[in-house]
Design a protein that fits this description.
Elements (H helix, E strand, L loop, with lengths): L5 H4 L11 H20 L8 H10 L5 H17 L9 H16 L6 H27 L3
Helix pairs in contact: 2-5, 2-6, 4-6, 5-6
């Protein structure tokens, strides 16, 4: 795998702010998701998510519904997140770190569908976590 920023591999405009724990946690999550996608689809390397999806689609016995989900829902959801305007509180960091931990625990691939589930949950949850934490900051809860 190349050493490019995993967020850019996912075609995201994401700049890591120095010494930002949340940015670092998100990068670890993106790294894990990228690595787990490569393992899940048995692809050695790819330059970005678009090349990855093209390669994955040509394989036999592949999880086409997951490829379709990544294309139609996953990437658009990631691209809709305003990474420059995420909360910077401990609750948001903890939520990201819990997802990171859960995905790490599945990296043995004993249950590949659990890895798929983790990736879908993470992609679906980042914006929701941000919304919850912004509400907490405003004192709505």
């Amino acid at each position: 795998m190349n050493n490019a920023n995993s967020a850019t591999w996912f075609d995201l405009d994401f700049e890591i702010k120095p010494d930002n724990n949340i940015d670092e946690a998100l990068m670890r999550v993106f790294d894990l998701m990228k690595e787990s996608l490569h393992i899940y689809f048995n692809i050695k390397s790819s330059s970005d998510i678009h090349e990855f999806l093209k390669i994955a689609a040509t394989k036999n016995n592949v999880d086409h519904s997951f490829i379709e989900w990544i294309k139609v829902k996953g990437i658009p959801r990631l691209k809709s997140i305003n990474f420059k305007n995420l909360p910077s509180n401990d609750q948001f960091l903890a939520m990201i770190e819990i997802d990171e931990y859960c995905l790490k625990c599945e990296m043995d691939f004993k249950e590949p569908e659990e890895v798929r589930g983790c990736i879908i949950t993470i992609i679906n949850s980042i914006q929701e976590y941000a919304n919850i934490c912004k509400q907490l900051i405003k004192g709505v809860f």
